[in-house]
């Protein structure tokens, strides 16, 4: 069946006219902030409590845009008669974003999760030298790092969480049931507010769990992570490190 | 040159018999028209002179535009509005554009062309003067006692022109039309014949160029022209 | 003295129209084109939806340096924008927007011829610009302009002649006066041919081969900067206004409308012109550029025969009804 001559022309006119009556897709950027996906590579943030000055990032960087200075400090013995320990103290951590090509190798390679992608992108300067940002600025960007998106329903459990669950189960088997309750409570308190819903939905979509304590143990770590974002105080002691640890695993899975 | 002489002849004895220096009659009075006519005539004459003397080809064409446009203004001043616009349409709008097109297509350097001058220029001048003199003499002789009345109804309006063209002059008009038509047909025949002699390879190559990349071989093939069509049919 | 005042006033009004209407068309093009492509177009200049974008553009153009290439033919190069722009100003003088002598800049006896003749002169500006730029791309653009003008002038003229035959006059107000509603179906072929050929003469997409940016940069206007470049652009948009106005007057009945013929006729003229201008923009957004040979073929094998057929039809109907 041959089309009527000129019908293609009319169709073209119809397409443009229809597009005109529809809503445009333009984002009015300076007036409205763009809606960026969670893993946007905007800028690199530094969580310096996690940094051990191992220099892996600086060595792996293809552009040589990471500058790290440090010195060694001696920590007096913790117990009388004990041995003095030495540790590296970070003096300077700077990234030259005029050289950086946003490959993300430093973030991949960091063994202690001290570097993160932040979606922040408005850091243009009028002088190229001002694009070298020092640790305080990198630290400010750290607090703009969003929580990692939830796992897909039915996704494999992150290794860290699996390990934590196994220990929790072992503990539960060893000890009497009343002992597990306060532990679960503690983790639920850390979760708090909006992250609760996330944990709930995960509970629904996941396969049914045998008992209450492993489930809360599963929902805990991701919410710990976001709790660390809400609370910018450096807290080198405990929850931040386990909280951040699931991240590279999830990236590997997706 | 023709223009200037014609100008002089037509302009000096004013239609209303008033000397040029007479007091003004108001906005665009007959005297005003005469002055304008004279000035435009001089301008046209100058442009025509530059057209034939300049060494820059494209400048010559553009000065020709000025000359032809000036002529159109002269028609306008003589109330022949229709003729004036036709002059602009045909000569300025088409003929000169065609001329410029031809110039640019072949050779139009910026600056002087050394070969734009001719050794025959004196002979050409003589011919031009003779032609101008003949024309002026004929025109003056024919219209010796006829004056255009600028105050009355326009003698050169479209209606008047059309009426006289298709009532009194219909035979010459039709004869000219036939002549032009014959010229047109002749031009087409000439251009088509020249192409037909060497047309077969280009036609083949064009037909097969759309068909397949096997063109270079099939061009010399006797059956080369058929293969692409078969392929098209197969699709 | 009153006459002089009248003439001055008319000239002033036409001049103001000449300066504002093209800007309105240009701004409409910005916005319509943007929305047809799913964008918003200018949003900042002037505050409300970027209404002052073209004024801002004008200021920018005026500030720019006026460069004349070293190898260019200086005088012709500088004269070309004026030659391209002035004809449209003259044509605007002759287009009537309402009935009576008050609604037209100057009543001309041979209006159709005047309008077409002067519009043809405008192309000389492009030719001069293309040649004088001392740039091969410009020269090619000029050549394409000339070729396009030569092939599209004929169907345009023939289509206009058809209407003149139907009306029995070549005066623009006379043609609109004689208009009847059934001319619309009668002259529809002529109208289409006229409009398309006019688009080609203005070098509007899809007939913008002479300024095809992917091949010859910007054709004849490649070397122009600043105000002279702006004048060429203004000529293009003034050309749209003139073409749409002419099509309205010749084929769409000008100030005739279903109602409100008394006093509000000029609204009809402006409305029809605006709709046609929208169509010009619409076509630009929708269709890709024709190739040079397609362009020529389209004119000679389609538009010219169609316009001749229209003339024949007009003649037959005219003889039958009289």
Would you kindly provide a written description of the structure presented here, covering whatever features stand out?
The complex is a heterotrimer of chains A (254), B (235) and C (322). Chain A has 254 residues and is an alpha+beta fold. Chain A contains ten helices and five strands, in the order αβαββαββααααααα. In chain A, the strands form two sheets. A three-stranded antiparallel beta sheet of chain A has the order 2-3-5. A two-stranded antiparallel ribbon of chain A has the order 1-4. Chain B has 235 residues and is mostly helical. Chain B has a domain at 1-154: Up-down Bundle (Four Helix Bundle (Hemerythrin (Met), subunit A)), CATH 1.20.120.1200. Chain B has helices at 2-11, 30-53, 57-77, 81-106, 121-142, 158-167, 170-197, 200-209, 215-220, 226-234. The longest helix of chain B has 28 residues, at 170-197. Chain B is globular. Residues 1-27 and 202-235 of chain B have low confidence and may be disordered. With 322 residues, chain C is mainly α. Chain C is built from twelve helices and no strands. Chain C has helices at 2-36, 53-63, 74-94, 111-132, 136-167, 172-177, 183-186, 188-202, 213-216, 226-251, 261-286, 292-321. At the B-C interface, helix 3 and helix 4 of B face helix 4 and helix 5 of C.
Keywords for this entry:
heterotrimer; A: 254 residues; alpha+beta; 2 domains; two-stranded antiparallel sheet; B: 235 residues; mainly alpha; Four Helix Bundle (Hemerythrin (Met), subunit A); disordered C terminus; membrane (chain B); transmembrane helix (chain B); cell membrane (chain B); NADH_UbQ/plastoQ_OxRdtase_su6 (chain B); NADH-quinone oxidoreductase subunit J (chain B)
